[in-house]
Amino acid sequence: MSTLVYSDRSPAEIALDFYGDDFYDLVDLHFMFGYVQATPDYFIMGRPVNKEAPHQDLVDIRITYNEHKQNSWFIYFLSGDMNKALDNIPFYLPYCTFEHKGSLKSYSLDKFKQRIRRTYGIRSEEIFNSRP
Hints:
Elements: E1 3-4, H1 11-19, H2 23-33, E2 35-38, E3 42-49, H3 55-59, E4 72-80, H4 82-87, E5 95-100, E6 103-108, H5 109-119
Parallel strand pairs: 1-4, 4-5
Antiparallel strand pairs: 2-3, 3-4, 5-6
């Protein structure tokens, strides 16, 4: 199960509490097949995917996609400062996808960043600063 979380607690602590005994296995899998970024401000696990892939393939961390078919970041877990996390993704893809309450959600990355910034009080003009 994947999720997005925002809280004032330690971002890594939130992930550890959320996944319990599975946390370290999930981190290891993301180190092998995706990306993990952990800072005092945010914690994120995800990987580049094709958002048109079947649900079961998107949530399976072991499935990778040819770089020419990658069009979305699958965000497996995100806690802490979502603005900073999204500004520091390894490279730009036009969409972000995540699972919420068992359903897949996919958004334009730029629109998702704009929504996050609007929700958390960051000016929308800052959205495009991280775009290559």
